[in-house]
Input
Amino acid sequence: MSSESETKPLDLIFRPRSVAIIGLSRGAVGSPVSILTSLEDFGYDGDVYVVNPKMPAVSGITVCKTIEDLPEGLDLAVISVERSTVVDIVERCAGRGIRAAIVITQGFADADEAGAEEQRRLTEVIERSGIRVLGPNTIGVADARAGFTSSFIEISRDPASPVGQVAQSGFLMMGHHLVNNEAAGFGKTVDLGNACDLGLVDVLEYYEADDDIGVIECHLEAIEDGRGFLEAAARIARRKPIVALKAGKSRLGLKAVASHTGAVAGESRVYHQALRQAGVVEARSAEELRLFSKAFATYGKAAGRRVAVVSFSGGGAVLALDAIDDAGLELAELSAETLDSMRHFFPAWLEIENPLDIWIPIAKDMESSFPAILEGVLNDDAVDAVLCIYCSYNLPKYQNFDVSQHVSRLAASYPDKPIACWSYGQDIEGITKTVEASGKAMVFPSLDGAAQALAHLADHHQRTQQAARPQTARSGAAPQEVAGILQRAQGKAYLFTEAFEILEAYDLPVAPWALVEAADSLETATNDLKAPFCLKASSQDIVHKSESGGVVLGVERGAALEEAYDGLCQAVRRNAPGAKLEGVVVQEMAAKGIEVMVGMVRDPSFGPCIVVGSGGIYAEVLDDVALRVAPVDAEEARAMIRETKISRILSGVRGEAAADSEALVKILVALSRFALDHDAVQEIDLNPVIVGKEGAAIVDARFIMSDLAAGACGQGLVRADVG
Ligand code: ADP
Ligand code: MG
Output
């Protein structure tokens, strides 16, 4: 360990040279479920002290009556006392010069208001004294190489494992090593608990700097500092793969239904996209989490997506094609030399190609054909990885068909070309164990899992080759007049005409409009506008204008305009009796085009997210959107548009000319800039933007102010759990 001044707080926690255990009951001595047993299993060779006034002497351990009897300056205290005494104990530990503590006790911010108050007091002690704390509400850590754990329960221990785990629950630390062949053990693992001091980003950065850790596995429940996480993850993931499972995705938080954008940009969509943007491999289940981190730990440098299939049967080969396609991999095109090298194993009438159905060769002569064919494809420069499909016959009479020795040996000779195995029926004790013996090949429980893992390996390689994307917080280039417009709008819950003004300040194409506050100013106000017009109610109290008769389309100048104006005012009075009508927006009708929705939502942890998708009144039902955590640049905006179904309509179907997607790109980029620069706006809904052959027209805009979002319910805004 490095000198004291350089010791990192997490070194004190993962690999303390001395530890005081506070709150250990007398019964723990000799119990199989005790930190003492765990320390023994881990072979901990640091100094162990137990603080307990009634504990009898225990060999190898120093028992002290009180904290004040401990020697000065121990590295770590592991505390599991009654919650009401935790704060006092931590303070006394700090007073005794103990540098860090793991607080196992639960019942803090994870529980009632009194617990939350205790946690606030704990934070004050930490700030005052400088002691560093993991928890509360944690089982702590395990470090296989340092031989230390704070857990009272058995935990995965694999000193050779490059996997560093960080979890928001002890659960994922515990069952791991009990799972049949799916697990890679942990080099290090930590349960963050309530993370009142040391948190997710601290651990990620600790693992980043740790040369023994090559793969980071995350179990996430809630990320408080989403931006901080994104920045750290995006940097680290370009060197070390990060696999993450986000739990609790289905529980949508309170979302205002005051905008289409808010309704389609649910929490799970934001998380999914945030992880993707940071280059984090998203696992959809605890099984995938184990599987993908084991795949990264098993395979070295996997370079590409071109896969060769070597299958015991044609049926398996066809299934492999589907899995390869679903995972976004490619089928490798084997060279003539490769095919020639193995042709003599096959009958002359069989045309051989990738995927290779090797039943005839192995039925004739497994021992010579199987290794030669497998090595043949591994040798081909056009092959990046191999999917190997076989059957795990374990009866002695089929012993001949056992691939395990060959796969294990060849995997070790070709470390840069993953051999991902799938067996229909796994003989875990026998064949699977031997395949995995070299630690260079893996047997997957499903063909899809194998293909997905290969795709993640290839994606990771690609990430390591790419330049970093900026994760900037602010663009710093807002048009000057915007601050003034926002100032003028202060106190309003929603912006409509001011939203148009702000968009115009960003040089965005709002369909020309004028606000008319009285019938007698209709003519002068619309002088500069070109008919035909559309009329819209401008009111703080109306969310969807057309639903209350607040939109009239295709109106000509003159008497028709006056009539439409009066009609609109009457309809709104009738349909939305309480609503205060501030005026009527008269707007030019936009040229024919495709209705697209563009929006922004401010996620509480990741900040502004930009959304684009199918627009109009059916936006929520169509649910055709792409989302990005800001910033969005032009290239990213184009990728977003390509992700949506509406993009196909934008590019022209049935002989129509393509619409001007670039006009849409400009709007997305500007919204991203605006959202990063102005916290005052919580949500933006531009629905629709009408995208024509040349240019686009923003015809509707709704900004929801942040003050409103914070105290929404009191102000009469309908809020509902959209889940
Ligand atoms: P709301 O969404 O509040 O009901 P909008 O302003 O979006 O009101 O208008 C409803 C619909 O009317 C739009 O989806 C669009 O089809 C049409 N529309 C509105 N303004 C225009 C315009 N300037 N040009 C052409 N069509 C328009
Ligand atoms: Mg609208």
Residues 251-257, 710-723 have pLDDT under 50 and may be disordered. The longest helix spans residues 359-379.
